Amino acid sequence: MKSKCRIFNRLLAVTFLVMFFAAGCATTTVKETTLAPTEEVETASSLSTIESGRVLADITDSNQIPAFKDDYGRIELLYAIDKSRKYFEKVESYPDSLKSMGFTPEKQIETLKLFRDGYVSSKSPQELTDFIAKNFRVFQVTGKENGGEVNFTGYGFPVSDKDVTHKTSLAYDLNLKLSAHFGSLGLHVTPIRSIAADDRAFPPGGLAFVAIEEATNLNKKGQAGKSFFTLTHDSRSTTKTTDRAEIFFGIGEDAVEKAKNFNTNGKLYYLLKR
After folding, report:
1. Confidence band (pLDDT; 50, 70, 90) for 215?
2. In the CATH hierarchy, which top-level class contains the domain 55-273?
3. What is the number of other CB atoms lying within 10 angstroms of the CB of residue 217?
């Protein structure tokens, strides 16, 4: 009888242990299947990447820099450059992480001035590329999973009663009509020549270059890709990530429609005078 009781007690103990561990495993399984990425997790990951300095990679091999071919109008770019220069002349604070890499306001004023001179005087994309390779450090945005890929989307604004156009005289007595929309830096945003990007990771007001290889609604019929210089004049809630930037398309229904349908991948670079 005692032997039977001992056997029964052992069986009871084993049954209890099996039920205990089974319950524990079931609880763990539920927790794992209900976990999902959250905005907080993504933000923390992005911030960690920014603080560790992995967002901008300094290209040290000149053979790795892109061909700096600019597919858009010169007047708009010069206007946007001049706006950034005025911003850097007045800015009182700037991200320490960017200053530690050399992107100080003073250095970026020098960058914009030298680039402007070289851009105006260059007679071909190859001459401009050679000029940049000689005089500038080129940083590539590391992008998604550090593979150099950046997602580009667009944004624009509908026309409202507050919209006005004004003329801005440039150095060579040409007039340029622009919208009165302002970016986060307090500067007029210029179609194509202004982008919105994470202002913690990318130089606010900084000179950038976008290279998009695939056909998009930025292209004329039959063109395979686009590349152009632009400036980081804006930062939006939708660009608080290190692998995305938004291109400003302008104002009006056509601009808004084009922006809404624009979504592609490409590469993003920043220039800094040596």
Report:
1. low
2. mainly beta
3. 13
